[in-house]
Amino acid sequence: MAQPGAENSSRNFIDWTQIDDILLDLDGTLLDLNFDLHFWLEYLPIIYSEKHKVRIEDAKDILLKMLNAEIGTLNWYCLDFWENKLDLDIVQLKRNVSHLIRAHPNVDKFLTQVKLKNKKIYLVTNAHRKTITLKMQATKIEHYFDGIISSHDFGVAKQEQHFWHELTRNIGLKKERTIFFDDSQDVLHAARKFNIGQIIAISKPSSKLDAKEVSGFINIENFSQVMPIDSN
Prior knowledge:
Order of helices and strands: EHHHHHEHEHEHEE
CATH superfamily of the largest domain: HAD superfamily/HAD-like
Number of domains: 2
Number of strands: 6
CATH architecture of the largest domain: 3-Layer(aba) Sandwich
Low-confidence stretches: 1-11
Strand order of the largest sheet: 3-2-1-4-5-6
Number of helices: 8
Mean pLDDT: 92
Oligomer: single chain
CATH topology of the largest domain: Rossmann fold
Radius of gyration: 18 Å
Structural class: alpha/beta
Largest sheet: 6 strands, parallel
């Protein structure tokens, strides 16, 4: 839900007439993070345990240590990196559980509404291009976007200021007339450091987990709270 003191209606904290560009994260923001959590923390350990003949709990510990060693870096999101490191076909393994890929509630409605208001919509994600392709095939939301930008295009994660400078150069971003949605606190702070005009945190990235407030930002649980129905 919105932060204490902020009502859920978008008119209370977003003036859509002052917004030209909408930047949207993918996993946990537009899409249910349950898929990614299940894949990396449940399904992949099963495959790893079978390959290396270790207990599943040991496989979970090994993989978690590997993941934590790369957290916040581009490698953490890079399927090529993990395919080489684990000697596994990560893309095919993701396809095996792709039935779990789904958009959050009200995402299609929100994207339709902002498109009708002639806003530019950009998918801005740390996800690898192979992951993006798989998820666009599963969710059918690709047609909404004026551009799809992966941090892998720039060789640096969204946590770094260089990403935001490259993004601005590539799409002609006017940051004071931009709104950005993300569920990752370190990315939200990076956007704030770059002075993006409005920043909204997603407090419920996974349908399987309770909402958790992202401190220091306006929070929403889903996009029904920011529909620009009454704006011009």
